[in-house]
Amino acid sequence: MKSIYIPAIGYENVKTYKYAYDVTDRAITNTLMGWLWRLILHYLIPMWFSPNLITLLGLAILTVNWLTTIYFVPGLKSTWAEFPGWLILFNAFGVFMRQTLDAIDGKHARRTGSSSALGELLDHGLCDSLEIWYVGMMCCALGGFGVDYRLYIFLVAAMCSHYLEMWAIYLTGKLEFWYLSFQESELVGVIAHILVYIYGREPLEHDYTIMGYTQQYKEWIWWVCTAQFVSAAISGLVRGTYFSLFKAPKGKPTFTLLMPLAFILLFTSLWLWHSPALWVTPGLGVPMMTIFCTLVAYADMRLVVGRVCRFESSTYYVISFPLVLGFINAYLKGALFSEVTFVWIYLAAVIFAEIHAGYVITKTLCDHLNVNLLFIVPNPPKENPTH
Length: 387
Prior knowledge:
Elements: H1 8-14, E1 22-25, H2 28-44, H3 51-72, H4 85-112, H5 117-143, H6 149-172, E2 174-177, H7 182-199, E3 207-210, E4 213-216, H8 217-246, H9 259-274, H10 277-280, H11 285-308, H12 322-331, H13 339-369
Parallel strand pairs: 1-2
Antiparallel strand pairs: 3-4
Helix pairs in contact: 2-4, 3-4, 3-5, 4-5, 4-7, 5-6, 5-7, 5-11, 5-13, 6-8, 6-11, 9-11, 9-12, 11-13, 12-13
């Protein structure tokens, strides 16, 4: 068996896959919220629920939140009077539910003995890499930032932190949750939504000076959150680099696995640098940020597939090549084609690539491993042979 995403050897290797990582959990949310997660898991999640269903529910909820946000807050920027009050509570609920479901899906898998390669792929390779920028854009809309260099820097830090963490796990086989991780950011996001709903946006717009620099409170909070993801990215990069230089078996791919991320980051940045119109043209900023994040999420998913199926991941993906065309066209001041049309066509292609890859990989792994995606089906009893 093989597909365009997994070679035949990958399907053979995945049969012997076991979730057996050396896990170091220092996350603050595990201490603060662990008791609630255990209660929800024990009293609300039936044993016949597949852990994959829990994971996908979290993604579905947050996808609805994100789509609703970009519909009611075009360009992620609005006055406080224009921002729907119900949307604040709706998004707070969505982020909280996503955080909770993400926390209990693995616990439920261990409780039911249903851990699998498919579960890790859906959790780390598909859902986490999408949800991390959903939440970022929703918080951006809450603060009324709009689409500018601050959002791009934040998204670069967030997406790179997750990719580099998956790269480090690919190499070391060790999953580490630091004191401040994505779940801590989600908790801050929930609290921020609730406080803004109660007190409004005005307290966040007061100026505050630190070491001679004056910015609004919300901007300081934004940079602190960005710094958190930068530190997480540095952590993954350092751990992966140390392993690559001193512990990696001879012939094992290491730094070459960073090429897809580097390519996407380089040519997206060059395109944006040479086309400032992408920041200010109505209706283009969010699609452009979505292209960047979805491309990194696609590369992230392919990296995780290579890890769980134990085959060498690709160092390039064709779907990212149009970034070069976008950069060249921007450099030539739009001489080749309409940038607006190109952005929307490329956005559709990137979303299709992500959905197609996710569907094909999930479907073929379910068929190959004889796994029900949504429910835990007990194995039929074996018949005793007659003598």
